[in-house]
Amino acid sequence: MIRRSLVIGATTVALLGGGAAVAYASGPTSGSPSAPASASAPATPGAPASAGQAKGHPALRAALRNTVQATWVTRTKKGGFVTHDAIRGQVAAVSSGSISVHAADGTTETFSVSSATKVRKVTLSPRSVTDSSIGQVAVGDRVLVTGVGTGTPAARLVRVVTK
Prior knowledge:
Layout: H1 2-25, H2 58-65, E1 69-75, E2 81-94, E3 98-102, E4 108-112, E5 118-124, E6 127-131, E7 142-148, E8 154-162
Parallel strand pairs: 5-8
Antiparallel strand pairs: 1-2, 2-3, 2-7, 3-4, 5-6, 7-8
Helix pairs in contact: 1-2
């Protein structure tokens, strides 16, 4: 059971970090929290996945395309536990020390930002990913933020998605 939870957690992180940001960016800016699949996703659940996608879990991929926020716990090699958080939506507030994201379901979550936080700008057309900084993130930007910790999680990655 623990191994299955770890596999699901790792798959969630991988898909939220890549495909979910693309799916979110191609969806509407308001209204329903669901977003259409990215262009590289299989058209049907039984179709083979393209290179770079998790294979064999079409139901999980479909659920993650509609994911607005997630929290999961993983076990460390030393037997401890780490709480992970992810949210995608629009930046409600940003400073050099924190970022608040407002999700489509009305939830707002604040993450602390440090020098260890990676900021990436993802442009969809043409597709490119470049390094950025928290100073380049503005209120209203569409983002996917992942982090670790409880209370105010520490942001590990901020992906700013632009068309």
